[in-house]
Specification:
This protein is about 75% helix and about 0% strand. By secondary structure, it is an all-alpha fold. α1 packs across α2, α4 packs across α8 and α9 runs antiparallel to α10.
Length: about 220
């Protein structure tokens, strides 16, 4: 029990410091000290190096987020809305932004910091399916709703969607952290869903169409 409590304290401390100060800026020694561990090697003992600590933080949060997302996807399927873009975006956005309502969670800020030092496809790609299956399914579903788009445009918009989700949620988190007045969480994420839907389904301009033709030539 004491070991589990120590691990949890170290994880929550690391998440908070990573979110507020940046992953590269925070040392393992600093995390141990902030977590009130007399033995500064406590983090190495429990988790190994910083990369293993990062994966432990992802595991801590993504298990819950994945289960929320799988539940929303099951509800969509039960209601015959498996290919409904707005419903799929809701299943994408809500589980992550639910973390913003948790008093002890700094996950969204930490995730933005992680996106800053890793390419987006390297944030989750090495993790087991029980942490990422819901994200993969919802991403595949959204892609099926965009078959009218040229493949390069579709791929870029899906990437922009992922980045916009993380950075918009993190912007709300950081504003609140610094005491700024923020929109109600429900309003922020409902508008974010609408914004993402609009961006994903925007008509392809003549400029982009022409550039695609020139690239193929």
């Amino acid at each position: 029990m004491a070991k589990a409590i120590t691990q949890e304290r170290l994880l929550f401390t690391a998440e908070r410091l990573f979110a507020r100060e940046g992953i590269d800026a925070v040392s393992m020694r600093r995390i141990a000290q902030e977590a009130q561990q007399r033995n500064i090697s406590a983090l190495q003992y429990h988790f190994g190096g910083k990369e293993q600590l990062i994966d432990a933080l992802l595991t801590l949060r993504l298990g819950v987020i994945n289960r929320r997302r799988e539940t929303l996807l099951a509800e969509l399927e039960a209601n015959g809305r498996a290919d409904d873009l707005h419903g799929l975006l809701t299943a994408l956005v809500l589980p992550l932004t639910d973390e913003l309502s948790e008093a002890d969670s700094h996950f969204v800020g930490f995730l933005q910091q992680l996106y800053g030092i890793r390419r987006g496809d390297n944030v989750y790609g090495h993790l087991p399916a029980e942490l990422t299956a819901g994200l993969s399914r919802v991403s595949d579903g959204i892609a099926r709703c965009l078959t009218q788009l040229p493949p390069p445009v579709r791929a870029q918009r899906l990437r922009l969607m992922a980045l916009q989700l993380v950075h918009s949620a993190a912007d709300w988190y950081y504003q609140r952290e610094h005491g700024a007045e923020v929109a109600p969480l429900e309003l922020m994420r409902a508008d974010l869903i609408d914004f993402l839907a609009g961006g994903l389904t925007a008509p392809v301009s003549e400029t982009v169409t022409g550039l695609l033709v020139s690239v193929r030539q």
